[in-house]
Each structure stands twice: as C-alpha cells, then as structure tokens.
Design a protein that fits this description.
Blueprint (H helix, E strand, L loop, with lengths): L5 H10 L17 H17 L25 H12 L3 H13 L5 H17 L3 H14 L4 H17 L3 H15 L4 H13 L3 H14 L5 H13 L3 H14 L4 H13 L3 H13 L6 H12 L5 H14 L6 H13 L3 H11 L7 H12 L3 H14 L4 H8 L5
Helix pairs in contact: 1-15, 1-17, 3-4, 3-5, 4-5, 5-6, 6-7, 7-8, 7-9, 8-9, 9-10, 10-11, 11-12, 12-13, 13-14, 14-15, 15-16, 16-17, 17-18, 18-19, 19-20, 20-21
C-alpha cells in the first residue's frame, strides 16, 4: 500500500494558492449620479468665476482648431439646453441637445457642443453607451476647439476602458496621444492600462515606466499596474522590486503587503512570503478567507512547516474567517498527516470526505486508517470511496480485501 507522496501536498497548495490582489487602474471614477452632478456643478461654478479665455490644454496639438461659433438660429436652443443642464434637469436638457443635433439649421459647432453636453448628461445618468455615442459624434463633427475636441476624445477612451472595450480604448488613446503630443502621465497610464488588459505586457511595461518616470509623485495604483505587468510577463524580480518599494512606503497598507507576499510566492521566496503574511496576522489584519488560505498555502509549500499551517487553519476556523469547506479540511488533514499526527488527520479527513467532489478523500482516509491498523473502519472508508468514484478503484479494493472484519 502506497503512502501519501509529497507531491500530493504540492498539488493541494497550488489549488488554494493566492492570487495577486493588484488594483485595477480606473480612469473614470465609479461615482453615483449625484456625486457626478455635484462635481460638474462645482466645475461649472469655478469656470464662471474665472475670467478670460480658457488656457490651451494641448499647445502642441497637430489639429488646427476650427474658428466656429454658435449659429444665430441655434443659440437660443443652446442657451435653453444649458439652463436646463445647470438646473439639473438632465432629461429635458438631453432632449434639447438631440433637437440641436438633428436640426439642419445647426452648424458643426452647435451639434458638437450639444453632443458634448449630451455625453455628460448620459454619463451622469449611468448611460455609458449613450455617452460614448455622443462623444464619437462630437469628435466626428470636428466643430469644437482643441480643449473640447480632445476632452471628448479622452473621455471616450476612459469610458471604453470602463466598459472593457480595451482594443477600442487603445485606438482612441493612440489617436489622442498622436494628435496632442501629450506626455502627461495620466494620459500615458490609460494607454499602458489598455495594453495590459490586452495582454501586451512588454509594450505596456514601456509605457507605464515612461508615465511613472514623468510623474513627480506617481500614484500607487500606477506602480501596482506596472508590478502586475512584470508579474504577468514572467519578470518576477522586477515585480518584487516594485512590491518591496510599495510595501516599505506604505507599511500600513494591507493590499501592498499582500501583493508583496504574492510576488514572493511567485518568486519561490516562500520564507519571505510567510514572514510578510505573519506580520499581518499578528496585527489582526488577516480578515478574509482568501488571506488565511494564502498563508497556510505558503506553509504547505515549505518543507517542515506543517505545524504552522495547522495553526493558521485552526485559528481561521475558530475565528469563523476560513470557510469549513472541502479544501480547508483536506489541507488540514494533509498537514496533520505530514506532521505525523495520524489521529487528527483522520478526524480532518472524515470532515473533508463527505464534502469532496469525488471519493479521493475517502480513499486517503482509508489509507490512514489502514496504516493505524483500524481495518474495519478502513474498509468502510474504501467502500465509500468506490461509491463516490476514484481514479484508482483497485487501491480501494485492496483495502476492502484485507483480512479481518
């Protein structure tokens, strides 16, 4: 009869191994409609208080801005639209915008400006599809000044990212960057994020590094995105450098510490991963099932650390943090077994076996019972293994065929 192999333990640890918790970079903030409306009103009031013509935000743009103004026939409608918009009457304002866009008396500026306002109203109402339709229309009409035209293009790219339209977002932001010649980090980050989402990791890394280098104070989520890019492209060493820097700079940021531990795991630096996670456990910051699993999976992948894994699992169960499911009890059973604690291993297998998708845990239970010379119990477990289904039923049949009741 074969004993359990160390390979079984590695397979288990891989099954419950933690995933990096890198934060996604979101260019369009997930705000409520009320929040967006309040922000818009604040910006509008700020604009009214400022004097003079707005500064050119894209001084290096290759586009020659059209010298267009609102037409006499459309001006009253535009004013009415803006009054409704300022009064938070979005539905009525949008209806006027649609009328202006459809009117043969409106020029390119009238229609583009109405499309721009329509996009903002749609966005405020959580209508991303409608907002993108208006924005595309505003860009195609080519009637706005550069601030308005490229503002629409930038917002379109951001919304496409938000809606997981990564290829379209990349095309939009590429056009934006090519025409504006912008080197602003917040613009380059959008392209880097799109490339990352499209799994173009080497290209993403180049753009993200450029964005971070151009920023006097790069945001942590930008660095997390670069770290994820390195990790996905197999450059674990580079990912670890960023993770260590973020963790050192933000010692109280749990996500930064979890990311560091995950990068250490990927880099086979399991002792460092365990130490990082233990610091979080000691300070009471391990509060989720997946976090405890990340720690005990780390110990299960380290030779001679079964007792530590047992302690983590039992603590998580006692606190009600770890789910008492098949994987938990299977991990606990194997940890007890490999630390030569047959009795507790049997108890854990008895809890795992009924929860399993097949009879493999019953077969393992039968093997341990057989090794402990508890033959009748071993036979019963072997029968249940066959009833539930195992890869090697002949192993179970050998136990059933053993002499003794």
């Amino acid at each position: 009869m074969n004993n359990f192999s160390r390979r079984n333990r590695s397979i288990l640890a891989a099954a419950v191994s933690a995933v990096l918790v890198f934060g996604a970079v979101s260019q369009v903030h997930a705000q409520s409609a009320q929040d967006r409306a309040a922000e818009r009103r604040a910006k509008h009031e700020e604009g009214k208080q400022s004097s003079g013509k707005a500064a050119d935000e894209y001084p290096q743009a290759t586009r020659q801005a059209p010298d267009l103004k609102s037409s006499k026939k459309a001006t009253p409608q535009l004013q009415k639209m803006m009054k409704l918009y300022d009064d938070d009457k979005g539905t009525e304002a949008r209806a006027i915008a649609d009328q202006i866009i459809a009117s043969a008396d409106s020029n390119a500026y009238d229609k583009a400006f109405a499309s721009q306002i329509g996009a903002q109203i749609a966005y405020d109402a959580d209508d991303s599809a409608g907002a993108m339709k208006y924005l595309k229309q505003a860009i195609e009409l080519n009637g706005l000044d550069n601030n308005g035209h490229y503002g629409a293009m930038l917002m379109l790219g951001q919304l496409q990212m938000q809606e997981d339209q990564y290829a379209e977002a990349l095309k939009t932001i590429d056009q934006f960057l090519a025409e504006t010649k912008s080197q602003k980090p917040e613009h380059l980050i959008i392209k880097g994020n799109a490339l990352y989402r499209l799994e173009k990791y080497p290209e993403a890394a180049v753009v993200l590094k450029q964005a971070i280098s151009l920023s006097p104070d790069p945001k942590p989520e930008w660095q997390q995105l670069l770290m994820a890019t390195y990790a996905e492209s197999g450059q674990a060493g580079e990912a670890a450098k960023i993770a260590e820097g973020l963790a050192a700079k933000n010692p109280n940021d749990k996500r930064a510490q979890l990311n560091l531990a995950a990068v250490y795991q990927q880099n086979d630096m399991l002792d460092k991963a365990a130490a990082t996670l233990e610091k979080l456990r000691a300070s009471g910051q391990l509060t989720e099932d997946k976090e405890y699993r990340q720690l005990y999976a780390t110990y299960l992948n380290m030779d001679g650390h079964e007792k530590e894994a047992i302690g983590v699992i039992n603590e998580g169960l006692q606190k009600g943090v770890i789910k008492p499911d098949y994987q938990t009890y299977l991990a606990l059973a194997q940890a007890y077994y490999f630390s030569d604690q047959a009795g507790p291993a049997i108890d854990a297998y008895k809890k795992a076996a009924p929860l399993g998708p097949d009879g493999e845990a019953y077969l393992n239970l039968a093997r341990v019972l057989w090794q402990e010379d508890r033959i009748p119990e071993a036979k019963d477990a072997a029968k249940q293994a066959i009833a539930k289904g195992v890869k090697k039923p002949e192993d179970a049949k050998k136990i059933i065929a053993l002499p003794g009741k």
